[in-house]
Amino acid sequence: MIRFGRHPERSVADLGREAVLGLIQGMNLDRERIQAAYGSSVFGGPLVSQRILKEIGMTGIPCYNMENACASGATAFHMAWLAVGMGLYDVVLVVGVEQLSTFGGGALPIPADDIEGHHGIVMPGVYAMRAQRYMKEYGAKPEDFALVTVKNRYHGSMNPYAQFQEPVTLEEVMASRMVAEPFNLLQCCAGNGDGAAAVLVCASEIAKELSDKAITVKASHITSGYFKGGYRDLTWPEITYRAVHKAYEMAGVGPEDIDLVELHDAFTIAEILYYETMGFCGRGEGYKFLKDGKSYLGGQVAVNVSGGLMSRGHPLGSTGVAQIAEMFWQLTGQAGKRQVQNARIGMTHVTGGGISGVDNGACGVHIFAATQ
Amino acid sequence: MIRFGRHPERSVADLGREAVLGLIQGMNLDRERIQAAYGSSVFGGPLVSQRILKEIGMTGIPCYNMENACASGATAFHMAWLAVGMGLYDVVLVVGVEQLSTFGGGALPIPADDIEGHHGIVMPGVYAMRAQRYMKEYGAKPEDFALVTVKNRYHGSMNPYAQFQEPVTLEEVMASRMVAEPFNLLQCCAGNGDGAAAVLVCASEIAKELSDKAITVKASHITSGYFKGGYRDLTWPEITYRAVHKAYEMAGVGPEDIDLVELHDAFTIAEILYYETMGFCGRGEGYKFLKDGKSYLGGQVAVNVSGGLMSRGHPLGSTGVAQIAEMFWQLTGQAGKRQVQNARIGMTHVTGGGISGVDNGACGVHIFAATQ
User: Fold this and answer.
1) Quick check: B222 and A64 CB within 8 A?
2) Which residues of chain A are within 8 Å of residue B48 when distances are taken between CB atoms?
3) What is the pLDDT of residues A68-123, one digit of tens each?
4) DSSP per residue, A300-334
5) Considering only B112-121, B171-180, B300-309, B363-372, which range has the smallest mean pLDDT?
6) Are the beta carbons of A340 and A221 closer than 8 angstroms?
């Protein structure tokens, strides 16, 4: 992957090119082995994967471009996994890319028919409501949420690919300007960065031939939201529960088996709710789980050891693929200072795309295991 | 499918809703049988299939959204076919949708990094160059191209779903304003319409249970362009040749077996070049093939009997799915006045997405057979 950040002078194709070339050169791979490409982007425009591959002369192969809001990268990976799984291809490329720095106002556009969005139920508002309800139900304070940023910026300070590599203190988070109570600016992930990430998916017997480092896909699941009207429990992200528990079932594992998770910390409250939804602790206990250090590198489960969306950044279509790149590095012992010791099983999780107020539109979960 | 046309007052979700509901109600299908959705759109924004399905309360199923320029609909169908083929799902929905009437200037946007596009090598220019070269090589006249519009508008006059249902004369085509020599306006498909189309893909044993009318997928192939620099033969659409001949091979058929084709007549010259590329006639003979009536309803092969892009319209992401809907109607004998008699085998073809001047970015071809 490339270092996430702001590169308004570059093109989407150029960002993707760097990630794909990095992958090919890093593996010393004969590019002729790549039989198809799965691109992911939300706002990258038509034919993202073709435009990227044209830059490096890899043309004429089947290219498929996937859009699934924040879950786009996971969806592209899922499609690649399916195609290899059914034997259609042996070796395929997944590349996620997004360039948000060139958006005019710095905020994502609200579709014309999104009534809730036009009335203020945009992402910061939705997650602020979740946080307000959580505080009322469980007695958490705004500072408890802010600790998510402190942790993830600390983790990200060890990740050379992160957009934000400076750690921050609790005081700094709380002193940043208010966006939607109880969220200060530093409790919201940045939606203004650019990024690209690429991974290779291949049949297991081919993996041995192409590289001495590989990880195994144990579960892959994509789902969509229910978009129910009426009362919803704001402290229970149902779509994440459904996707994660389906993935546990596919992989034959439970929360106690997971050594590290890359999860969708778009806002601080989100990470805390996902601890609970994923079963790492009980309901209402997420903020204590964090405060007790259990989700830090070296804790019970290392959560967002890459820095997560909060520190690595969140160029939409590239996030899901970057999470999988992190799993590759961690489960093959190549993660440097942020290495999770004895990491054997890891999970990635992306969810997003608001429609109809508080429900997410798409969620993608993968579970990986160390191969050796 | 819905009648293609201009509906700027409606939303993308609403257009898709009508197509999906029409499918479900027309089949008297229990919607609970649908296990996943494959959406296709180029400019429809995030989560098109989720936004459509939310309108009719079909939520919580895996949704995948595909973008592949003009080949988006074919790509979504291909992905659905793969998933059913590998047994992941039994019954899945494909829905293509596009709303172009709400675009400001009426023309498709040129990406910032498309240097050729910014210098005038946009679609009408590219195809006009093809036509100029073809005239020089083979002695065709502008009127020979205009006959494609006359044929397709005649066919479309029998299609209640077509955007343009009035036949036009050769004189009317030639009298319409010049866009890019030798193309008058009526030799260019309309890129300003809206549309939606939906089809169901299921395992063959399930098809018998759900409906007494079904067709069989004999081949499905997606590929991308080579984007070569330097000299290219403008009268030979290489990407179409490659995709179509791969599909013939998969299906075990040749051009002599094809009863009808829905092909990508974005500009009149395109249809003539595809007769030759698909092997219905020799090189340089396409315009005579048309003039002799061989591509009319009742001719050697019925080409674009739906009206094609020229008459049915071309709302990008919905075109590939609408072509497949036409195959369903034709191969089950439900096409009314435009019915191809004794139709047994049909082919659909979409290609497009300009990058690097004259090469297309993506091409999708399917071959279908009557099941009875």
Assistant:
1) yes
2) 67
3) 999 999 999 999 999 999 888 999 999 999 999 987 656 677 767 677 778 888 88
4) SSEESTT-HHHHH---HHHHHHHHHHHHHHHHTT-
5) B112-121
6) no
CA distances in angstroms from B150 to B35, B157, B173, B289, listed in the order given: 42, 11, 8, 14
Q: Say yes or no for a CB contact (<8 Å) between A228 and B67.
A: no
Q: Apex CA B277: angle with CA B309 and CA B235, to 5°?
A: 85
Please state, in angstroms and as integers, the Cα–Cα distance from residue B307 to each residue in A142, A292, B139, B282, B338, following that order: 61, 67, 27, 24, 10
Please give the ipTM for the structure prediction. Answer: 0.93
Distance CA B258, CA A62 (A): 24
Active site residue A70: yes
Q: Is residue B362 less than 8 Å (CB to CB) from chain A?
A: yes
Distance from CA of B286 to the nearest CA of A (A): 26
Do A67 and B88 make contact, defined as CB atoms within 8 angstroms? no
B324 φ, ψ (degrees, to nearest 5) = -70, -35
Q: Chain B residue closest to A355 (CA)?
A: B51
A277-289 pLDDT, tens per residue? 999 999 999 999 9
Which chain A residues touch B11 with a CB distance below 8 Å?
Answer: 112-113
| Nearest chain A residue to B70, by CA | A46
Report DSSP state, residue A285.
Answer: -
- R_g of chain B, CA atoms, integer Å: 19
CB A250 within 8 A of CB A215: no
- Does the beta-carbon distance from B13 to A362 stay under 8 Å? no
Contact across the interface for B12 and A222, Cβ inside 8 Å: no
The Cα–Cα gap between A14 and B270 comes to 31
CA distance B174 to chain A (A): 33
Of B337, B103, B92, which Cα lies nearest the Cα of B206? B92
Closest among A286, A297, A312 to A343, alpha carbons compared: A297
CA diameter of chain A = 58
Strands A360-370 and B63-67: unpaired
Q: Determine which helix (DSSP H) or strand (DSSP E) holds B95, and give its type and residue range.
A: strand B91-99
Residues paired with A346 in a beta bridge: A260, A368
CATH topology of domain A1-372: Peroxisomal Thiolase; Chain A, domain 1 (3.40.47)
Q: Which pair of tokens denotes residue B19?
A: 């197509």
**Nearest-CB residue to A46 (from B65, B69, B225):** B69
- Give the start-to-end residue ranges of the domains of chain A: 1-372
Task: Determine whether the interchain pair A12/B54 forms a contact, defined as Cβ–Cβ distance below 8 Å.
Answer: no
> How far away is chain A from the Cα of B240, in angstroms, using its nearest Cα?
11
Residues in contact with B88: Cβ distance below 8 Å, sequence separation at least 6, in sequence order: A82
B118 touches chain A (CB under 8 A): no
Q: What angle do CA A55, A42, A216 make, to 5 degrees?
A: 75
Q: Is B252 on the interface with A (CB under 8 A)?
A: no
Q: Which of B70, B188, B189, B202 is catalytic?
A: B70
Q: What distances in angstroms separate CA A185 from CA A156, A172, A182, A191, A310, one per listed residue?
A: 17, 10, 10, 12, 11
- Contact between chains at B45 and A227 (C-beta distance less than 8 A): no
